[in-house]
Amino acid sequence: HVISGAPGAVGWAAHELEEEHGALTKEIERRVPMHSPLMAGVARQFGEALAAAPWRSPVRSYRPNVTATTLDGAQPRHFVSHLTRHVHEPVLWHASLTSALAAAPGAAVIEVGPGGVLTNLIGRTWRGTACRRVDVLDNGDVRAHFAQTVEALHA
Fold this sequence. Notes:
single chain; mainly alpha; 5% strand; globular
C-alpha cells in the first residue's frame, strides 16, 4: 500500500503502522507526493501536455491504475483522463497488477524509470514473475535499452 500526502501526516501514519501493526514502511520520494491532492496543480499541467500529444488507439486492452479495470476500445481521451488522474488520485496498483497477471499467466513486467521501487515490490509480492527494470538514461538510447530488456526477457 502507498500513503501519500503532507510529510508530517505521512510520517505520523508510518510511525503508527510500524508501532501498532508491525508494518515495514519505506519512504519512496519525499519531494514528489504522487497520487495525492497535493499534486493537483501538476496534474492539470500534465493533462494539458497529454491532451496536446499525438495518440493512437491501442490494439490491446488498457488497464488504468486509477480504476484497476480493463478498458477495451480505449481512445486518446481515456489515456489523457486516466493518466492525469493518476498523478493526483490514489492508484489501485496491487489490484491492477493482480488482475493483469491473472489475465496473462506467464507475462513479464517491465518497469520503466529510475529506482526500481515497483520491481522490488513485484519480486516480493508476485514471486516467480519475470520482471525487469529499464532505467531512464541521461545520455543513452532509451529505445535501444528498452528493446534489449525485452529481448532479454524472451531469452
